[in-house]
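SECTION: protein entry
WANTED: fold as tokens:
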Amino acid sequence: RPLLRRDYDRLVEAGAFDDEPIELLEGFLVQMSPEGAPHVLVIDCLTELLVRALADRYLVRIGHPLALGDLSEPEPDVAVVERGDYRQAHPTSALLVIESASSSRYRDLGFKAELYARYGIPEYWVVDLDAREVVVHTDPGSGQYAKIARQGAGARLSPTVVGDVTVIVDDILP
């Protein structure tokens, strides 16, 4: 049977997974991919850019859980969320979620895209290190995004929901 998020959270609090890089996706424990230097560089670049541009309006979370329904608690590389009191519970939504992907690209472009769309995350980016592009997903509904655009070298991206931020693809790719 699937593991419920509330039970997973109790196990996390009890230290059951202290040395295991896992996340809960649709009731199943899924091992997270190791973070190589290019992966970390993307996250560092995006963190610096987004925190500078958005810190007065939103919270930029790095590798922290989102509580999505009863069965999922993904830990996206970057999530921009509304400011709020998260002392007792993780955010239940985000305005923008970003994953940096190489070995995890199929899961990030497939299963996670469906998950984030199903829970109404308005914008989801996958920085595809192998293809050297950012795959931008917008307009979620019925477990899929209506619009998917691939942006490569030279492209300038602006998150639709948070505004006032420009990400130049060349600046974040190693």
Notes: The chain has a mean pLDDT of 94. DSSP finds five helices and ten strands in the chain. The CA atoms of residues 108 and 126 lie 7 Å apart. Residues 37-54 form the longest helix (18 residues).
